[in-house]
Amino acid sequence: xxxxxxxxxxxxxxxxxxxxxxxxxxxxxxxxxxxxxxxxxxxxxxxxxxxxxxxxxxxxxxxxxxxxxxxxxxxxxxxxxxxxxxxxxxxxxxxxxxxxxxxxxxxxxxxxxxxxxxxxxxxxxxxxxxxxxxxxxxxxxxxxxxxxxxxxxxxxxxxxxxxxxxxxxxxxxxxxxxxxxxxxxxxxxxxxxxx
Length: 195
Ligand code: GLV
Ligand code: MN
Prior knowledge:
Elements: E1 53-58, E2 72-78, E3 83-88, E4 94-100, E5 103-108, E6 114-119, E7 124-127, E8 133-137, E9 143-149, E10 157-158, H1 159-164, H2 172-179, H3 183-193
The structure holds glyoxylic acid and manganese (II) ion (MN).
Glyoxylic acid (GLV) binds near residues 55 and 76.
């Protein structure tokens, strides 16, 4: 989904004071082989959080060699029962491959049709750009998946935390009407997401 590159590569200079759409390129004479390799997805992520899952990102911020190339990858680790909660990516479609365990993968279309399947190692999914999706570990042990995006920075909007954990918070009048429930329900959910 990102614009096409205008040169072979443009390793991001993340510290540049120049502000553009994307990042300016590090001078070509300073580019080294290591700019095109990344070992940050080797380690299992820490899944001790309320969701029991964690996403480790190889995007332009962690792997500046991706700048302008329209690609990035995540490692997603799941504790038993863990969930990568419903979220969407504003700037990319997503593919994923299950490496370990069993994941229930699902997304909802713009017409509110829910598509889902339980995937085993070697099996793959695709999430069309911008649609709300999740992965739930339905196996016995841990699970692991790698996901890829057609953007160097796909962005992520987590449904629960964006509605119930924003700063400042969205007024109860909005959320009680939107979800057709009382203040008690909204406050109960809010309390889990710190807003
Ligand atoms: C999984 O949905 C991910 O965004 O990596
Ligand atoms: Mn995703």
